[in-house]
Amino acid sequence: MNDLNLKNKVAVITGGAGVICSAMAKALAANGVKTVILDLNKDTAVATAAEIEKTYKTPSMGISASVLDKSSLEAARKEVNDMFGPVDILLNGAGGNSPAATTKVEKMDGSENPEETFFGLQTEGFDKVFDLNFKGTILPSMVFGAEMVKKKSGVIINISSMNSYRPLTKIPAYSAAKAAVNNFTQWLAVHFSKTGVRVNAIAPGFLVTNQNRFLLFDEKTGEPTARSKKIINSTPMERYGTPDELTGTLVYLASDLSKFVTGVVIPVDGGFSAYSGV
Ligand code: NAD
User: Fold this and answer.
1) In what order do the strands lie in the sheet with 265-268?
2) Is 153 exposed, middle or buried (0-12, 13-18, 19+ CB in 10 A)?
3) Residue 261 near residue 198 (C-beta atoms within 8 A)
4) Ligand 1 mean position to 18 CA, how many Å?
5) How far is C-alpha 213 from the geometric centre of its chain's CA atoms?
6) Ligand 1 atom with minimal separation from the 162 CA
7) Is 76:65 a contact under the CB 8 Å cutoff?
8) In degrees, to the nearest 5, what angle opens at C-alpha 276 toward C-alphas 167 and 100?
């Protein structure tokens, strides 16, 4: 077995104060990686970094920046370089869906209120979701990828989703944006293939987090929605995953264990993507 070669590496985790990516940052810190929690929300970024430093005795810093603003990312890169040196690992975690790009109706027959179907979606919702998931992966890859190419080593890991393989009902923008993330992962992996920089992605299965809770549980009663029941029935392991269950794949992709792996999207999904439903 190869050495992981992660100790003292520097990782930037975008959306690092969120549910999934804070768990991912902790898994990297547990392996001796210096972590940078880059998030729109300064307070939660700083608090997450402080918690990581305390728990794992590994340096961590919280930085406020937007993955949609290149100059704020460049300012963040300078801050990271001054504190920790060049970046070795970029985890593009910031992403999510928006109610403005979500239909109320799954399959329409034409008799519904158009507002509850595809025809009621707001183009601004599409813009928002595409920007956050797709452009929000491209810009950090440009800013932090440039220094990886310069030093001829580095790892970029994108966060995709089950909807990238086959779209999920109700969320056309989020599905298409994550499909774009998969496509871009392959494209950038090839583009960087001779530079020493690897590019891969993780496609998490279903987890309950802030961004999808409103679709999975009734806000008033807390009961699972019909959609929630369908998800469990479509997941051979018959349960939701947890953020911690994504971290083994993350460590594999970030480390030398996957030295010859680039351009893949790995599902971590309790079997969802393998199951036909029959
Ligand atoms: P989350 O909402 O808990 O965290 C997202 C974080 O990103 C937040 O801390 C937020 O402040 C930050 N953020 C938002 N906009 C930003 C911006 N412009 N710049 C920098 N930071 C910004 O999300 P999560 O559920 O932990 O999801 C993390 C990733 O996993 C996302 O890419 C999401 O699409 C993906 N994902 C989630 C699930 C799920 O079930 N929750 C499933 C598959 C994939």
Assistant:
1) 60-64, 34-39, 10-14, 89-92, 154-159, 197-204, 265-268
2) middle
3) yes
4) 6
5) 17
6) 43
7) yes
8) 20
Residue-wise pLDDT for 24-39, tens only, equals: 999 999 999 999 999 9
| Ligand 1 site residues, Cβ closer than 6 angstroms | 14-15, 17-21, 39-41, 66-68, 93-96, 132, 136, 159, 161, 204, 206-207, 209-212
CB 160 within 8 A of CB 201: yes
Q: How many CA atoms lie within 13 A of 81 on its CB side?
A: 12
Cα–Cα distances (Å) from 140 to 14, 135, 148, 255, 261, in that order, read 8, 9, 12, 20, 21
Q: Which helix (H) or strand (E) holds 201?
A: strand 197-204
Asked: is 2-205+241-267 a CATH 3.40.50.720 domain? The reply is yes
The model's pTM is 0.96
Assigned token pair, 104: 């109320």
Question: Is 161 exposed, middle or buried (CB count within 10 Å of its CB: 0-12, 13-18, 19+)?
Answer: buried
Catalytic residue among 174, 240, 252, 275: 174
275 is catalytic: no
Q: Which atom of ligand 1 is nearest to the CA of 133?
A: 32
Q: What is the pLDDT of residues 47-99, one digit of tens each?
A: 999 999 999 999 999 999 999 999 999 999 999 999 999 999 999 999 999 99
Residue ID of nearest Cα to ligand 1 atom 16: 40
Q: How far is the CA of 157 from the centre of ligand 1 (A)?
A: 14
